[in-house]
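Re: Re: ligand-bound prediction request (bumping)

Still looking for help on this. To restate: I need the protein modeled with GDP-alpha-D-glucose bound, output as structure tokens. Inputs repeated here so nobody has to scroll up.
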Amino acid sequence: MDQGVWSEAMIPQRMIVVSNRLPVTINCSGDQPRIQASTGGLVTALDPILRQFGGCWIGWTGSAHDHRLARLIGDWSASHEYSVHPVFMSAAEKTRFYDGCCNQIIWPLFHGLPSRCCFESAYWQSYRTSNEKFARAVETIWNCGDLVWVQDYHLMLVSQNLRGRGLDKRIAYFHHIPFPPPDIFETLPWRAELLFGLLHYDLIGFQTPRDVRNFVSSVRRCLPDTRVSHSGKNLLVKTRGLSATVGPYPISIDFDEFCAGPMPAIPKAATKIILGVDRLDYTKGIPQRLSAFRMLLEKHEELRGRVTLFQIVVPSREDIPEYRRLKFDIQTMVSEINGEYGTPSWTPIQYFHRSIPRDELLAFYRTADVALVTPLRDGMNIVAKEFCASRTENRGVLVLSEFAGAAEELGAGALLVNPNDIDAVACALHSALTMNEAEQQSRMQTMRHVVRSHDVYNWAGSFIRDAVHSGPAAVRTAVQVAGD
Ligand code: GDG
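Reply:
Sorry for the wait, this slipped through. Here it is.
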């Protein structure tokens, strides 16, 4: 960890992280509610920061209010380095806000897929009221000197709500998913309202410079009286009395955590292993990837019986019909390919539809010969970074979609592909499987260097430093930030 960017001088009195989901999910389906870790890129990135830094995490529990939960949450907070503060949602709020506006409007639109959007005004209305609910939760625990750090597309209007309550805080926002080009963004019926709301944050961080460009172009188009100027490496966006700093802050991982830990518990298979690890989501390009693997087997008979695809798919958004259909389509393709090419001693695809424990995941990363990370569009994709960090011997090949944010940083070492080009992905897979060791070493070293020198602590350190410096002047003076 680089202590330089993580110095005492920039640490606010307390950090309040706000995200839609807490790092824990509460399952109330059995006799007793159970608490379990949530899976996903946002939690993987933020949890080590809060463990290091302390503070409070506000978010939805994944359930409606239940009086038995207070003790469960209190016990969890008491035994962890930071506390969690729950927000509860009714079934109707979940349907309209989370399943509706977040996952059937903003998610597909921001991933460049407007035809998958369901522009229901009731969903947008619920987005507004749910953001207000999260703002109220912040208001109840906020103290002078806290930095409020809001995460992701579910909560773009929280700052506007807080400002509306007269709270002059330092409020920053990080956007984990892509920001679409203006031609796509402008199809949103509530485009100006959303952008105006978002500009109430002091600092808005995106994954890549391309997301920043898309955002600024959309603001210029939808809010024509906007002025944009440079502010160091970032941009200052001013409109209708608001002023927000905007910049790229590519998210990363706790590199050391993925280097250390147990050696593989998975017996080295007789075949080469290709690995895919994804949440179940149409943006992850899983059917296209299966088609590419099928083409590889079709074109290269010599690989049959010699290569196995391990595909881990973590269940996600199961209440949305489109996600259930995707699950069915993937299962169908897996069984077709296994039925077509499998033999009594070889199953071409080993498919896991569940979340597996972290140490087992690490074992998969360490055992694989090739990681196949081929989203159709992805904010960053930290699986690609986790794979590289885990390869302590500098062996293994990353086949990476050029449409993942990670391609900007890892492009020099990965085999970059267009995930829609099935032939090209099959061809890249063949190159990866036959790559000599010297080339593997050189490519992997390049990528590991990037991830090691920009880990999640650098990411959070530079973001927090800029957030503290871009907050309202009065608050900055109050916490006596060094260098002001
Ligand atoms: C969003 C953006 C952006 C996966 N399977 C298991 C498991 N995982 C963990 C991985 C990784 C995380 O989940 C997935 O990270 P991604 O980056 O792929 O993606 P999203 O959840 O879509 O997250 C994305 C990210 O936010 C961060 O900003 O990169 O672009 O869409 O950490 O290791 N973990 C365990 N078992 C599994 O089976 N324990």
